[in-house]
Amino acid sequence: MTREVIRTLALLGLAGQAIVVVVVAAGAASLAGAAGPLGRIRRWLWGYELWAAFAVAVIATVGSLYLSERAGFVPCELCWFQRICMYPMTVLTLGAALRADHRAARYLLPLPVIGAAISVYHLLVENGVVEQARACQISAPGGCATKWIDEFGYITIPTLALTGFALVAAFLVFALAGSTDTDAA
User: Fold this and answer.
1) What is the 3-state secondary structure (H, E, C) of the chain?
2) pLDDT > 90: what percent of the chain?
3) What band does 185 get if pLDDT is binned at 50, 70 and 90?
4) What span, in angstroms and rounded, lies between the C-alpha atoms of 165 and 160?
5) Residue 184's pLDDT band (boundaries 50, 70, 90)?
6) pLDDT-derived band at 92, boundaries 50, 70, 90
7) 132 pLDDT exceeds 60?
8) How far apart are CA 77 and CA 96, in angstroms?
9) Over the stretch 142-161, which tens digit does the pLDDT of each residue have?
10) What is d(CA 176, CA 171) in angstroms, rounded to the nearest whole number?
């Protein structure tokens, strides 16, 4: 069962990474003067940005809880900091989505941005680019450098967390853009 769940989470991570690449490419095209692709994504997401952020936060939260509570993977120090940034997003994005409060996205956005920064640092530690802190070494077996999963040659727990944070941040940015549209109307 655990193997199937890990594979499913990795496939969801791949899908999320594809979405991030499409959004970044559309944003780059928009910066180059082609507003069409980004505008199409905004129209397609219109009204569901906060629900999309909520869905990603729920999947990330349930996935991390499964990995620690059912699969027995001990969360390291950096995993806990990432959880601190993701777990509240489930409740906060649900509340904002239920109220259709797109302006709340500006207050929520720091959580995935900080979480993404921690994920990047965790990836650097995991891949030996940065030496892990002593707190990491005592927080979990093998410390923060332990690769509990390694799917498709690069998808590890911090990679999945970074993907989740990037998606939540992207959806919140779209929600913010929607809030300025509705404020102007």
Assistant:
1) CHHHHHHHHHHHHHHHHHHHHHHHHHHHHHHCCCCHHHHHHHHHHCCCHHHHHHHHHHHHHHHHHHHHHHCCCCCCHHHHHHHHHHHHHHHHHHHHHHHCCHHHHHHHCHHHHHHHHHHHHHHHHHCCCCCCCHHHHHHCCCHHHCCCCCECCCECHHHHHHHHHHHHHHHHHHHHHHHHHHHHC
2) 64
3) very low
4) 9
5) very low
6) very high
7) yes
8) 29
9) 788 888 899 999 999 999 99
10) 9
In the numeric block, which tokens belong to residue 20? 């991030």
Q: Retrieve residue 170's tokens.
A: 């992207």
Tokens for 9?
């989470």
- Mean predicted confidence (pLDDT) in 69-86: 92
Q: How many CB atoms lie within 10 A of CB 108?
A: 25
Positive or negative torsion for Cα 62, 63, 64, 69:
positive
At what angle are helices 157-184 and 110-126 packed, to 10 degrees? 160
Residue with structure tokens 């239920």? 98
Contact 73, 157 (CB under 8 A): yes
Q: What pairs with residue 155 in β-bridges?
A: 151
Q: What is the mean pLDDT of the chain?
A: 89
Asked if 115 and 161 touch (Cβ cutoff 8 Å), the reply is yes
